């Protein structure tokens, strides 16, 4: 989900946080966060909730308006 990853990256940048700091706030490894930001890793609902909370935003802010199906929609975390 490239658009989701872009939203995550944009939010992290808006907070002026490094990937390492953001990942620590979220509770995931920074390489995992990097993969999410590049659209290389899909996230389960639990991780989306963790990402939103860690980035001090809502899941809706990261998900609203995203297409429901993508070529990678069968990939899971």
Query: Would you list the SSEs in sequence order as H and E?
Result: HHHHH
**Average predicted local confidence, pLDDT:** 90
Largest sheet: none
In DSSP terms, counting alpha (H) and pi (I) runs of 4 or more, how many helices? 5
If you compute it from the alpha carbons, what radius of gyration comes out, rounded to the nearest whole angstrom? 11 Å
Beta-strand percentage range? under 5%
Structural class: mainly alpha
Kindly state the percentage of residues in helix: 55-70%
Poorly predicted regions are: none
Key words describing this protein structure:
mainly alpha; 5 helices; 57% helix
Can you walk me through this structure?
The chain is mainly α. Helix 2 crosses helix 3 and helix 2 crosses helix 4. The mean pLDDT is 90.
Secondary structure layout plus pairing:
Elements (H helix, E strand, L loop, with lengths): L1 H13 L4 H8 L3 H8 L7 H10 L4 H5 L14
Q: What's this model, at a glance?
A:
The chain is mainly alpha-helical.
């Amino acid at each position: 989900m490239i658009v989701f990853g872009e939203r995550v990256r944009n939010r992290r940048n808006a907070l002026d946080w490094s990937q390492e700091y953001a990942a620590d706030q979220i509770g995931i490894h920074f390489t995992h966060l990097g993969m999410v930001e590049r659209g290389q890793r899909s996230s389960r609902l639990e991780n989306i909730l963790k990402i939103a909370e860690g980035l001090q935003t809502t899941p809706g802010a990261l998900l609203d308006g995203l297409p429901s199906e993508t070529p990678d929609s069968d990939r899971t975390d």
